Amino acid sequence: MASAVVAVAAEPPAPVAVTVTQQQKKNRIQVSNTKKPLFFYVNLAKRYIQQHNEVELSALGMAITTVVTIAEILKNNGFALEKKVATSTVGMKDETRGKMVHKPKIEIVLGKTEKFDSLMSASTNTAAPEVAAEVTSDDKKEDVKE
């Protein structure tokens, strides 16, 4: 019975560790340079910054250049500030040869700039008049047909 008490005492820290892991991954984007287009990741990163005030971009191998490009686009357009850059190597099993290979890894953490919200609202406001103009011009075309 003492072992059951020890097991119960050991259980509570485990869910806390899982929660911390899930919390860290909520704002992480693992970038691939083959699965999605570049601006998919740029727009996703903007959404993550909007929701969590920061985003962690991570990539392995050849996708590292894509992550750096995404970070530079966000920084140069005033959406993000660079908080942290970390590089490392990760040991992975090569599926074709069956042996361990080391792949480079990068993690870039970007934070929200002070002008982020105004830039985001400006980009949505500029899209709305274009849509309104298209509707107006379509309405005029219909009027001409009648």
Report on the biggest sheet: 4 strands, mixed
Number of helices: 5
Total E-strand runs: 4
Kindly report the spatial arrangement of strands forming the biggest sheet.
Answer: 1-2-4-3
Residue windows where pLDDT falls under 50 for at least 5 positions: 1-23, 128-146
Main structural class:
alpha+beta
What is the percentage of strand-forming residues?
A: 25-35%
What does this entry look like structurally?
There is one protein chain. This protein has 5 helices and 4 strands, in the order H-H-E-H-E-H-E-E-H. It is α+β, with helices and mostly antiparallel strands. Strand 3 (80-93) and strand 4 form a beta hairpin. The radius of gyration is 23 Å and the shape is elongated. The termini are far apart. The relative contact order is 0.12.
In short:
The protein is α+β, with helices and mostly antiparallel strands.
